[in-house]
Amino acid sequence: MKRYIFASLLAGVVAFGLSSCEDDNDSNPVVRQPESFVLNTPAMAGNLYDLANSDSIRLTCSQPDYGYTAAVRYYAQVSLTDEWSNVVVGDDGTETEANPPKFVEIEGYSSSVVANYSAEQINSALQQMAGYDEETIPETIEFYIRLHANLGSGYDTYSNSVKLTAKPYYAVAAEPEMWYLIGACVGDGSWGSAIGTAVTPMCLVEGEEYDQVTGKGTINYTGYFPKELGFKLVKVPGDWAEQWGGVDGDITQPKKKEGDDEGSDFKVPESGYYTITLDTKANSLEIVKAAKQDYSVYSRMSITGVNNDWNTFIDMSPVDTYEGAVPHVWKLTYTFDADTEIKFLANGAWDTKDGGNNWGSTGFPYGWGTYNGSNVPVKAGTYLIILNDITGFYQFIAQ
Q1: For strand 301-304 and strand 366-368, is the pairing parallel, antiparallel, or unpaired?
Q2: Which residue ranges in the chain fall short of pLDDT 70?
Q3: What is residue 22's predicted lDDT score, i.e. its pLDDT?
């Protein structure tokens, strides 16, 4: 996987209250599509924004004229060149995505015409577009910022852009955005919030390039699903604000929650193995029958090699414990007193004639184990370890 060094970001948008009033038109509005709206020049625009020592940049705007007082979402967009398309058209007419991008939309939105937008995210967007590293970071950088207004049901419109100057800083990459499975056929079936008990993390995709600012990209999961039990996807365990469900439970009609409108529990049409693919950048979800339906099922999974002891097996536990579960995801909370190397070993045997299998890789805190792969380098600390024995994806979640 191509690696970048950028900061782990929180999509922090601090929104201020937006008062509204209702009239007869609000109760039955006719929506207009405005051509644009006004972003005001910030009071500090003539000064230098020191992004390392700022929490945010405050922006104010007028509401787009939709014909009524609408509930608008405002997203900030940043560009180095005042160009607002990431589509590049070649001489032969083919279209490709600009790399690095010409503009970046900041994660999260405000519902107010007066809002603070994260300096940390703006800094990371500038770094992504300018492509500098720790050795070549500029003293100052000029950029353009504008707002993207959206009603949730479309009607996108864009403000004018404003030119600002900032002192950037060097930061490390955003962690890939993770989503989780939850439901009656996930974990203990309780619909609870504990990772590894009631919710199961999906898997990162080997070779995928995740957005350096937002961490967005493609993630997946392959596992066994019984047809009579439902499930959903959530972004944050214990929080239902962002979730995926189905129309009447249909896996071929996924829908992401919009406001109070959420889908019902997914239910597969017949029991078996399914692959779930979620593109968090494109907001698309696909659930299909897995290409293979005869995956090996192991009665035991362990880690071995701690402190160079390859004959002691520390057993993991199956994550899925609901009635009728087929174990393919394993967990273990363990404290490593020193840096070490480990492998994952099935059925307590190195000899494949006895049904043993082992997985390893050079990645940490996550990676994709392959049969007879390299030893996994582990840093000292306490971790919740999760392994999917179908995809080989493992992760060490610091506790």
Answers
A1: unpaired
A2: 1-29, 352-356
A3: 41
The whole-angstrom separation of Cα 131 and Cα 102 is 12
**pLDDT value of residue 350:** 83
For 371-384, the pLDDT digits (tens) are: 889 999 999 999 99
Neighbours of 50 (CB within 10 A): 13
Residues 191-239 have pLDDT tens digits of 999 999 999 999 999 999 898 778 899 999 999 999 999 999 999 999 9
**Bond into 365 cis (ω within 30):** yes
**The 3-state secondary structure of the chain, one letter per residue:** CCCCCCCCCCCCEEECCCCCCCCHHHHCCCCCCCCCECECCCCCCCCEEEHHHCCEEEEEECCCCCCCCCCCEEEEEEECCCCCCCEEECCCCCEEECCCCCEEECCCCECCCEEEEEHHHHHHHHHHHHCCCCCCCCCCEEEEEEEEEECCCCCCEEECCEEEEEECCCCCCCCCCCCEEEECCCCCCCCCCCECCCEEECEECCCCCCCCCCCCCEEEEEEEECCCCCEEEEEECCEEEEEEEEECCEEEEEEECECCECCECECCCCCEEEEEEEECCCCEEEEEECCCCCCCCCCCEEEECHHHCCCCEEECEECCCCCCCCCCEEEEEEEECCCEEEEEEECCCCCHHHCCEEEECCCCCEEECEECCCCEEECCEEEEEEEECCCCEEEEEEC
The pLDDT, as a whole number, for residue 2 is: 34
pTM score > 0.90 for this model? Answer: no
Measured in whole angstroms, the distance separating CA 360 from the mean position of its chain's CA atoms is 25
